Amino acid sequence: VYNAMNEHPEAPTLGEVPKVKPNLNAIMDFHAASCAVMEDIGKFEVLLCRSGRLDSRVSVRVETIDGTATEDQDYVPINEIITFEEGETEKSIQVEIINDNQWEPDEEFYLKMSLLLDSEQREGVQLGRISIMEITILNDD
């Protein structure tokens, strides 16, 4: 997914996959690198997972990025800060797919996890290997 995003002319360049240091930081990941859902699913949950250090409160931003699917036409955009309390290892976020009655090919968009801008809030947390998740919308029309 990193390579696809880096090569896409309209997507931001993300650079190399970061090295994970679980003994120093809380590591934040999505539960899977990709998933496929039917267009008529409505809302579904995506799991965020925390590993590594669990002894602090950490936060990450989760936001959507267009692929061939576009916000407000194919899915409801997300831009939220998710906070894990000390000892918490899982959180979920609701993703909503917009159902229409026109035929179109299967489309995809991305959920991207990023660290917060404030350097104090970046302390002790890092992104893991699955910080971008591809979601494919399977057309049902």
From TrEMBL:
InterPro entries: CaCA, CalX-like_sf, Calx_beta
One MF annotation (Gene Ontology) recorded for this entry: calcium:sodium antiporter activity
BP-aspect Gene Ontology terms: calcium ion import across plasma membrane; cell communication
Gene Ontology CC, one term: postsynapse
SMART domains given in the database record: Calx_beta
Keyword Transferase applies: no
Keywords attached to this entry: Calcium, Ion transport, Repeat, Signal, Transport
Residues covered by the Calx-beta domain: 15-114
Listed Pfam families: Calx-beta
Keyword Cytoplasm appears in the UniProt entry: no
Superkingdom field: Eukaryota
Name under which the protein is recorded: Calx-beta domain-containing protein
